[in-house]
Amino acid sequence: MTDEKTALTRPAAKLTHAGALIALQAAVRRAEAMGVPQNITIVDEGGNLLAFIRMDGAKLLSRETSLSKAISAASHRQPTSRLDPALEVKLAIASGGRLTNLEGGFPIILDGMCVGGIGVGSGKGSEDVEVAQAALAALGAQV
């Protein structure tokens, strides 16, 4: 019976709210050091919101793009901006607008398992990437 149950499940690591807050704090520190206010979103592996902040002065609508970046990265298990540009519009439509190819989204991969995603938006693409990478570094996640 144990072998049958084992075939029906698999072990899964989960990003905790404490882990999400460590990543969020590291991202905020980097954004503050850069002088670039950001929207920072952290989701679990299923795209469920774990942590979010809109720093003072961050662009309002970038709140939506930061969420889409986090969900896209977690869903595809790869950084945003790596999708085939020919498929961008089709994928966005198929996902109800949740999928984006904008820079600034990364999967959170710990010990080879994707446990979530981070999305950063409000700066230039390279600034969003730098802030997200600071969060990943704080968790010891793969980039």
UniProtKB/TrEMBL annotation:
Domain of life: Bacteria
Transmembrane feature ranges: none
Gene3D superfamilies named in the record: Haem-degrading domain
InterPro entries: GlcG_carb_metab_protein, PduO/GlcC-like, PduO/GlcC-like_sf
Any Pfam family: HbpS-like
Coiled-coil annotated residue ranges, if any: none
PANTHER family: PROTEIN GLCG, SLR1406 PROTEIN
Protein name: Heme-binding protein
